[in-house]
Amino acid sequence: MNKAKPMNKIGKNKRAVKSTALLTSRSVRALAAEMILQVLDQGKSLSALLPEQQSAVKPQDFPLLQEICFGICRVLPRLERITQFLLDKQLKGKTRIVHCLLLVGLYQILYTRIPAHAAVDEVVSAAKGLKSDSFRGLLNAVLRRFLREQEQILAVVDKHWQTLHPEWLVNKLKKSYPNWREIVEENNQKPPMWLRVNLQHCSVVDYQQLLAAQEIAASSTNHPQALRLHQASAVNLLPHFEQGWVTVQDLHAQWSALLLEPEDNELILDACAAPGGKTTHILEKAPKAKVVALDIEPARLQRVSENLDRMQQQATVVRGDATQPEQWLEKIDFAAMGLEVKSKSAVQFDRILLDAPCSATGVIRRHPDIKWLRQETDIAPLVQLQGQILEALWAKLKPEGILVYATCSLLPEENSQQIQHFLAKHSDAKLEPLPFAHNDEIGHQFVPTEQGGDGFYYAKLRKIRA
């Protein structure tokens, strides 16, 4: 049987838990059902939907909304099997919103500390706000039946181990990883929260002590800037967060700037830069570097600018398609960067960090809706796009320059096979060693682990002079 770990208690004790359940806005359940419907039936991402709804609920209720939405996506197949036992006829078409509201109720009963009766009452009440008032009786009856027959139903539902993943993805993991079961299990858990300490302000040890003074426990690791929080924390509780002393960034994502090895006064491209964690890390390592942060999505580029402002750093933020460098190079004011450029189309970079668009199968535990948003048919077009970006940006790299290729994918066709194919086509490309890679590896693949980071792939390429 595969069950994600239940969430921590909401509040500090049972009285606080009950109080939270009673005070929570009734719209939270309705909003959760609406967002789950948009994920499952319209292919929308929770990463896009949740920020849009943040102002629709009380600030103290947003964590619950987030918990319910991510949680349902994490254990969706288990909840769906339970509904098959509870309903004589599945809710389809216009009644799908009622089905999603049922998923909200089941998730709360199974995975939160909200008292069962309160969870049922709130879900039944939420039906009215979804113009599904006529289904209140059905929801009440079905959820209370589950409370009565929970033990018998779960005995059948959980008789066999469940991957809680789509079959196509499980099959791909089986082909690539002897330890695929461990990866699947880890994908179904909540991710640890990692911090990157800005060494320009504070050492890792000193920041750990600042956290301890706030009663926030953290552990260091072999990465020179990383701390893992024992429990997730709101960023406003992190000491000097707004002053740029620390950034929330996964452990394995933190290797990108270190592998790039940026130096002051170099012209550096951070391609597909949003939301900006890697851009700011590059500037932490080389404050005088001339960094161009490129992304194709305007809304995500705004996040890059916000992060740069918080860190009090300067970079050139530009919107553009990474496969078409000539188009966005024309937008850049190189003179403002202190560079004399005769022809913008002929500009070449000292270093390029390519965090390529990918399936994101390595960050499923952080974004569990990926399991249901991504389709097997998405992979081949992504592989083709990655290859096109690699080709386009390689032409914009100086001789003896460094390109770091990174993805948050677990699939070899996006990672080692992509680089192997690129090396076979480019005699001027040399694979550089990585500090954590084995001798026979093409780059290095990180997989998600309980105490470690998410799934990431890295390859470091040097452009050899002709």
From TrEMBL:
An annotated GO cellular component: cytosol
Membrane spanning stretches: none
Residue ranges of every copy of the SAM-dependent MTase RsmB/NOP-type domain listed in the record: 183-464
GO BP annotation list: regulation of DNA-templated transcription; rRNA base methylation
Gene3D superfamilies in UniProt: Helix hairpin bin (1.10.287.730), NusB-like (1.10.940.10), Sun protein, domain 3 (3.30.70.1170), Vaccinia Virus protein VP39 (3.40.50.150)
Compartments, record wording: Cytoplasm
Catalysed reactions listed for this entry: cytidine(967) in 16S rRNA + S-adenosyl-L-methionine = 5-methylcytidine(967) in 16S rRNA + S-adenosyl-L-homocysteine + H(+)
GO MF, any single term: RNA binding
Keyword annotations from UniProtKB, A to Z: Cytoplasm, Methyltransferase, RNA-binding, rRNA processing, S-adenosyl-L-methionine, Transferase
Active site: 408 (nucleophile)
Pfam families: Methyltr_RsmB-F, NusB, RsmF-B_ferredox
Ligand binding (S-adenosyl-L-methionine): 272-278, 295, 321, 355
EC number of the protein: 2.1.1.176
Primary site of residence: cytoplasm
Function: Specifically methylates the cytosine at position 967 (m5C967) of 16S rRNA.
NCBIfam families: PRK10901.1 (NF008149), rsmB (TIGR00563)
Family membership noted in the UniProt record: Belongs to the class I-like SAM-binding methyltransferase superfamily. RsmB/NOP family.
Entry protein name: 16S rRNA (cytosine(967)-C(5))-methyltransferase
Originating gene: rsmB
